[in-house]
Amino acid sequence: MPSVEVPNVIGKSKSEAEALLTDAGLKIGNVTPGAHPNITAGNVTGSSPAVGTEVEKSSAVNLDVSSGPAQVPTGNAIQTGVPDVTGLTRMAAETALKGAGLTIGPVKNRSSDEVPYGGAVTTNPAPGTLVTPATPIELFLSRGSRFGFMSYLPTILFAVLGITVIWLIGYIITQEKQVFLKTLAEKEVARGLITFLIALATVGIAIILAISTLVLNEGPDGDKRFDRGKQVLSVLIGVLGTIVGFYFGSADSSTPKPPIEQGGVADPAPAGPATNAAADSLPSGTATNAYPTIKLDEKISTNGMKVPLKWTVTPMLPAGLQLDGAQGTIGGTPAAKSKGEYEFRVTDNSDTPVVRTGKLKLEIK
């Protein structure tokens, strides 16, 4: 049998409601009168099945009809029920409350998934509560759904974070000669990265907590959740301070002192000539031809430094050329033309290592 939808008969007169149901191919069931605080006597307050329900054609629909607002005597006073103003505009809700002999108390906002922005969500005391006339009624208006864009914000943030982490891992794995990992192995770089990540996490949580004030319900439950969030943030900030202080403040006596860079002050410092301050040049070479073996100590003095020495260069030499880190020599056959400036670094084997650097230009023609 075909089905039909129960038409909206709420607020209609009994005769109008019966006509709508008949036109929809439905039958009139039981009609039950009952008090209602804000629907005029004789008009429909509800139906069973409810409005919008799919039912078989020719099904019977029961109607609830208003007999007007209830007034209940208690001793020498008359009490009236707080009208149900859910879904009404602010003006209509206030009119209904005043029409029931009540006054308007504080007006507050509350998130609602069912009531559009600006509509009445509920009252305090709750609808149907018996109160004396002229009692102030607190009215809650909708500020819209909490499940809008903000509800997807955590998912979006986690998705962006996940994609970023996957990209970073792929970049690190595929990077030529693992330059990033070698750089990360340096203690100072690792310290900076750890501090940055902890600070970033703390700031991110702080931002999420700030945004959460827009989506948490007003009232005790929402306040408790926000208070818990603030406590978590305070703990994280404390942990951040502790980790950074411990990591940067602790010093292991067994850890070698950092190398003495040119221009620094340290004791004791082995004597030796100063590092080349100005850029110098290496002998030029020719692409695809063997490059003459060059000793770097001819350009950067190693006098007074304790062997064995360790040489490094930044950036990498042109393809085909190699630096012998132990001998401090350059050799090989350059593959193509190039021109650039390279920083060479030599570290000795002292208890307090001495480091000297020099910038040298190299051209392959």
Short structural description:
The protein is of the alpha+beta class.
Report on the structure:
This protein has a 4-stranded mixed sheet with strand order 12-18-17-14, with no helix packed on it. A 3-stranded mixed sheet has the order 2-5-3, with helices on one face. It has 6 helices and 18 strands. The longest helix is centred in the middle third of the chain and has 30 residues, at 220-249. The protein has 4 domains: 3-66, Trypsin Inhibitor V, Chain A; 73-142, Trypsin Inhibitor V, Chain A (2-Layer Sandwich), CATH 3.30.10; 153-249; 280-364, Immunoglobulin-like (Sandwich), CATH 2.60.40. The protein has helices at 14-23, 90-99, 153-174, 179-184, 187-212, 220-249; strands at residues 3-5, 27-34, 44-48, 54-56, 60-66, 71-74, 77-81, 103-110, 120-124, 130-131, 136-142, 280-281, 291-295, 310-314, 321-324, 329-332, 338-347, 355-364. With 365 residues, it is α+β, with helices and mostly antiparallel strands. Helix 5 runs antiparallel to helix 6.
Walk across the major sheet and give the strand order. Answer: 12-18-17-14
What can be said about the biggest beta sheet? Answer: 4 strands, mixed
- Helix segment count? 6
Helix and strand element order: EHEEEEEEHEEEEHHHHEEEEEEE
* CA-based gyration radius: 41 Å
Q: Name the beta content range.
A: 25-35%
| Principal-axis shape | elongated
- Percent range of helical residues: 25-40%
Task: Name the poorly predicted regions.
Answer: 250-254, 262-278
Q: Overall pLDDT, averaged?
A: 77
Number of strands: 18
Distance between the termini: 91 Å
